């Protein structure tokens, strides 16, 4: 994983392990199908963008994930690894990850489900949270 400068001037030190902990928490909340925990990864006015979906605000994200965990994501798991961390300014970081949703009953991530994601993190109230999460397919058919 590559990282930019170690600090964003006038902001908190950017500890790569602390930043990488956010995807781990997402994996844990997803495994538990915990819509509340998932939504809590976001700031109050956070944004979740998935292919064909746009959710604005923590409550909308919570409601969307609660329904998704009972519907298309039921029994699924998510995986992801940080690829790059880029400090953007005081208290803000861009994180690029690669991973995807492992369907219910599958042992590994199908190549067709692989994604790359952009995470814009902000440091608020002593912790890093998502301001924006967006993903797209890793590979497109030729």
Describe the fold and architecture.
The protein is of the alpha/beta class. It has a single domain (2-135), classed as Nuclear Transport Factor 2, Chain: A (Roll). 24% of the residues lie in helices and 43% in strands. The protein has three helices and seven strands, in the order E-H-H-E-E-H-E-E-E-E. The protein has helices at residues 16-31, 35-39, 58-70, and strands spanning 2-3, 42-50, 53-56, 77-89, 92-102, 114-124, 127-137. Strands 1-4-5-6-7-2-3 form a seven-stranded mixed β-sheet, covered by helices on one side. A hairpin with a 2-residue loop joins strand 6 (114-124) and strand 7. The longest helix is centred in the N-terminal third of the chain and has 16 residues, at 16-31. The chain is globular and about 40 Å long. It starts with a strand and ends in a 5-residue tail after the last strand. The model has no long low-confidence stretch (mean pLDDT 93). Residues 19-130 form the DUF4440 domain. This is SgcJ/EcaC family oxidoreductase.
Describe the secondary-structure layout.
Blueprint lengths: L1 E2 L12 H16 L3 H5 L2 E9 L2 E4 L1 H13 L6 E13 L2 E11 L11 E11 L2 E11 L5
Task: Return the structural class.
Answer: alpha/beta
The total domain count is 1
CATH class: Alpha Beta
Strand order of the largest sheet: 1-4-5-6-7-2-3
- Total E-strand runs: 7
Alpha carbon gap, first and last residue = 28 Å
Spatial shape? globular
